[in-house]
Amino acid sequence: MSRLVYILNGPNLNLLGKRQPQIYGYETLADVEADCRKLAGELKLDIRFHQSNREYEIIDWVHEARESAGAIVINPAAFTHTSVAILDALNTFDGPVIEVHISNVHKRESFRHHSYVSLRADGVIAGLGTQGYQLALRRVAQLLEEKKG
User: Which Pfam family, any one of them, does this sequence belong to (predicted)?
Assistant: First the structure.
């Protein structure tokens, strides 16, 4: 079982730390990536960390993950609420999928309460800030270990 994890980030997350810090905090996406790489090393996971504002790139990375990855951690951002295409791509992936949201989407506008990605996700982490990524990696490591078992 592959210990490679794709961490995929959707639109506007390239502005993390600059855009609405009262909602998303002051950490940048580079900070999140550095934290994920450090923890991945401790958990003996390899990661590929990507961000795109383009739906098709996220879909392409999910397709790529089908061939090499054991799990996907995804923060689809605004695509959460709109992208049946990302859901369809995730449905072709056999490993665990953990959905992450930095903010608590259930305390925000009602349109944010629906997630297409949740229909495929094995777990959802919302409202725990950027720490949600580390929690997702810990869960993925446990799931991959159980599969190996």
Answer: DHquinase_II
